Amino acid sequence: MRHKKDEALSDRGKVVEVCRKLQSEHEEHLSAAREASALHKVEVARLHTANKELEAVNKGHEFHIQEAQSLLEGHSTVIKKFDKGIIERYMRLIVVYISLIIEWCGRSHFILQTSYWKGKRINGPNG
What we know:
Layout: H1 2-81, H2 84-123
């Protein structure tokens, strides 16, 4: 009987030892889980901050897009008001200026040439 008691106590000691080992492993896993949870909370907070920053940037982009659309509408209004007749008048004015410039250049060239040849005739071929 004593042998059975010793054997039972031995088995009980082995069970207690296994339980302690399991409890130790369980505590290690809990510690690792707590550490992972803390890291997760930090990462979630960082992502939340980044998300708010992106939302602010997005609102800024939306504002600039609306501003650009408003400018485009204003430009199209101005272009519509810039009547075809005005464009034709400017084109005629440009043609007149170009004609005057060409005429002035031609006269200058003619005057320079004739004065050169007149000088050659008056002063002789050697100037």
